[in-house]
Each structure stands twice: as structure tokens, then as C-alpha cells.
């Protein structure tokens, strides 16, 4: 009876469960639709973000490329301003040839004692601020056989300094023949005085606008002779004197040996000879001896890569703008070139870099590198004696392992 009543009312024992299953199915479909729409929204938002990111990346990349090429254009324009033009180089080359021919054609001089050379040169209004009273050796001028251009002019690393009276300085090396100097003249100031006499003799014979000056405007450096075609000329030839290559024993010119004899200066031979190292004197003589080797090394290096040479020019401009390229304690002469050579030697710079990258790394090296004597930075793989350059505040030894270029 109870079952029949349920059927009569349209309710079966299983009808309630079917209703519940249908409701669950509807809920599941709704959940799936919600999940689907949420996933679609997330997908489209992700794609949109990716597109925006790609666009931003493209814009940043384009901005970087434009900025990079703009810098290269500015660098190129700046380098054109400070680089010698072809007509300027032609004029300088012609004057160098004229000077070289005149120096080589100077006739051989008479044999005179050094003690009387200053009196003889005063007749020609050339004064030597040195005392030759202890110099009993004879001196004879012999014209040089080797006169050649050295320095940054040979590899186009020179910059034109428009703010200076003399905008361009070209180094001309004159090697004194062996007959003019003795093998042991590096002792007791004899080479220094013969070099001064030889330079004054050249000044007596050359008929141009002449001026004595110190190398790189530093009074502690050797005296050089500036030669110009006339007083209004914007360039000058800087005559540097040196002994013939490998003439002196260069190991005797390291900072630690003593090459100024105490007894020779005092004239007292009875007192025992005290030992005093003479680093400054030794370096001044060794600096002359290394002129040609140094120039050959740097010329070979910078002729192998125009970008390295351009980076060096940018660094020189930076130094010149801050008045750090001349005077005592400055980054003078070949120091910038040797710093770049050292960074190339330590593989912080390579020849595939452009000039702007080379310039930036040079500035970073000034800030980060320690060139103190305790580090003893060197351009050679040979071992450097630790106490050889202990007297120097900054040390960068050249490729020979003998000369501290800093």
C-alpha cells in the first residue's frame, strides 16, 4: 500500500537520487564554464603582457642602438677635430726631412776638453748651466748616423692641442755616435754633460726658431731642443738625444745600483767609498737608452688596431681637458699609451673593441687598478725583483722589465 501510494503521487524510490545527480551535473558544468572563462581571461592578459613586454623590449633596444650610434658619431667628429690633416702631415714631414738632412750634414767638430766647452759655447750666446770643472775628458762632435721620428706621430696617436701656442709636438730621435761617448760614461754625470754639450752644438748649427725646454714641461726631466720653421709656426720638432741602441749595460741602470761615486765628487780618495743607490739618476739615463725600443714596441701595437689608437686619443683628450697631461705628477708622455698596453697585456682590453669601449675601460682602470710599488705591474712575463722599484710610488714596468714608465 505504501509503495503504491508513492507511485500514485509520482514519486519513486530512485527519483530523488536522480534529481540530486542532475543538480550536481549542472553545478559541474557551471564550474567548468567559470574555469574556462577564467583561463581565457588569464591567457589573454598573459598574451597582452607579453606583447607589451616585447614592445617595451623593442623600444629599449632601439633606444640603446640609437644612443650607441649617436655616441660613435660624436666620437668620430671629436677625433676628426684633433687628428692631423693630410696637408699638415705633409708640411711636418717636409720639415723633418729638412732638419734630418741638416743635422747629418753638420761637419765634424774639433777635439775640445769638456772643461772649456761652456766658455766656447758662450761665444754663440749658448749657455750651459753646468759646471765642467771636474771634466778632464776630451769631447768631439761627430754627426749622427741615425735620426728618426719616434713617438705617437709614427702611429697617428698624436692629438692637436688648439689651446696651446705650439699645437703639435713631433719627437725626433738623434742618436749620438759611439765615438762621442765612452762605454762607462753613465757613471758620475759624464753622459749627462756630454748630452748637454752635443745638444748645444746642434743648436749652434741649426738656423731656425730654437728654444730649450724640459721634456713634457717637467723640470726633473732632461732638456730637449724645440725647433720650429718660424716663430709663428703651430708645430715644433722636439729633438731628443740618446746613445746608440744597446750601447750601455742597461742592467747597471736599474734603480738599486750606485752610479754616482762619492769619492769622485768630494775628491777625497782616502775615505772608504759609501754606497748610495741612485734611482733618479739611473732612470734618467735609462730613459734615453730605451727611446727607440719603446717607440718600436708602441708603434707595432697601435698600428695593429685603429680602434686602440682612437681610444688612446680619446683618453689624451680627457687628460688634456683636465690639465693632467703635462707638468710634474701628470700623466705625461707615453704613460697613457703604456697604460693601454698594460690593459691589453692583462686582457682587459682586446683589439675587437671600438674606441669608445677602450676609452671607458681606461677610465675604469684609473679608478680600480693599484699601481703601487707593492704590486709591481709589468708588461713582461718575466719575474721582476721585488725591491727593484721599491723607492717609486707608482710602478708600471715596460716590456724590457728594466724601466718604470710611471
From TrEMBL:
Domain of life of the organism encoding this protein: Eukaryota
BP-aspect Gene Ontology terms: rRNA processing; tRNA export from nucleus
Compartments, record wording: Nucleus, Nucleolus
Residue ranges of every copy of the Nrap protein domain listed in the record: 170-301, 311-405
Reported function: Part of the small subunit (SSU) processome, first precursor of the small eukaryotic ribosomal subunit. During the assembly of the SSU processome in the nucleolus, many ribosome biogenesis factors, an RNA chaperone and ribosomal proteins associate with the nascent pre-rRNA and work in concert to generate RNA folding, modifications, rearrangements and cleavage as well as targeted degradation of pre-ribosomal RNA by the RNA exosome.
Family: Belongs to the NRAP family.
Protein name: Nucleolar protein 6
Organism encoding this protein: Rotaria socialis
Amino acid at each position: 500500500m505504501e509503495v503504491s501510494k508513492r507511485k500514485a503521487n509520482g514519486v519513486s524510490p530512485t527519483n530523488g537520487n536522480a534529481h540530486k545527480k542532475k543538480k550536481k551535473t549542472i553545478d559541474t558544468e557551471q564550474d567548468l564554464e567559470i574555469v574556462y572563462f577564467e583561463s581565457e581571461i588569464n591567457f589573454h592578459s598573459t598574451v597582452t603582457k607579453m606583447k607589451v613586454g616585447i614592445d617595451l623590449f623593442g623600444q629599449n633596444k632601439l633606444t640603446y642602438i640609437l644612443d650607441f650610434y649617436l655616441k660613435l658619431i660624436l666620437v668620430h667628429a671629436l677625433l676628426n677635430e684633433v687628428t692631423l690633416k693630410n696637408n699638415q702631415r705633409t708640411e711636418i714631414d717636409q720639415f723633418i726631412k729638412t732638419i734630418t738632412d741638416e743635422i747629418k750634414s753638420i761637419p765634424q767638430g774639433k777635439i775640445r776638453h769638456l772643461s772649456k766647452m761652456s766658455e766656447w759655447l758662450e761665444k754663440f750666446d749658448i749657455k750651459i748651466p753646468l759646471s765642467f770643472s771636474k771634466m778632464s775628458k776630451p769631447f768631439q762632435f761627430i754627426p749622427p748616423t741615425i735620426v728618426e721620428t719616434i713617438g705617437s706621430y709614427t702611429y697617428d696617436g698624436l692629438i692637436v692641442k688648439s689651446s696651446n701656442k705650439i699645437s703639435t709636438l713631433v719627437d725626433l730621435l738623434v742618436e749620438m755616435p759611439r765615438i762621442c761617448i765612452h762605454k762607462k760614461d753613465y757613471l758620475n754625470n759624464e753622459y749627462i754633460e756630454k748630452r748637454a754639450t752635443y745638444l748645444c752644438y746642434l743648436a749652434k748649427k741649426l738656423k731656425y726658431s730654437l728654444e730649450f725646454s724640459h721634456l713634457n714641461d717637467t723640470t726633473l726631466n732632461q732638456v730637449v731642443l724645440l725647433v720650429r720653421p718660424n716663430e709663428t709656426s703651430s708645430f715644433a720638432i722636439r729633438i731628443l738625444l740618446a746613445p746608440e741602441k744597446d750601447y750601455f749595460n742597461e742592467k747597471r741602470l736599474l734603480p738599486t745600483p750606485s752610479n754616482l761615486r762619492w769619492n769622485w765628487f768630494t775628491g777625497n780618495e782616502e775615505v772608504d767609498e759609501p754606497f748610495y743607490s741612485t734611482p733618479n739618476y739611473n732612470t734618467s739615463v735609462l730613459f734615453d737608452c730605451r727611446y727607440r725600443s719603446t717607440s718600436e714596441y708602441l708603434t707595432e701595437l697601435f698600428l695593429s688596431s685603429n680602434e686602440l689608437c682612437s681610444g688612446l686619443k680619446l683618453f689624451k683628450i680627457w687628460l688634456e681637458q683636465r690639465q693632467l697631461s703635462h707638468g710634474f705628477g701628470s700623466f705625461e708622455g707615453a704613460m697613457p699609451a703604456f697604460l693601454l698596453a698594460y690593459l691589453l697585456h692583462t686582457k682587459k682590453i682586446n683589439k675587437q673593441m671600438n674606441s669608445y669601449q677602450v676609452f671607458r675601460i681606461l677610465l675604469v682602470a684609473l679608478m680600480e687598478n693599484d699601481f703601487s710599488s707593492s704590486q709591481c705591474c709589468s708588461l713582461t712575463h718575466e719575474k721582476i725583483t721585488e725591491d727593484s722599484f721599491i723607492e717609486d710610488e707608482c710602478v708600471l714596468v715596460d716590456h724590457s722589465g728594466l724601466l718604470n714608465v710611471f
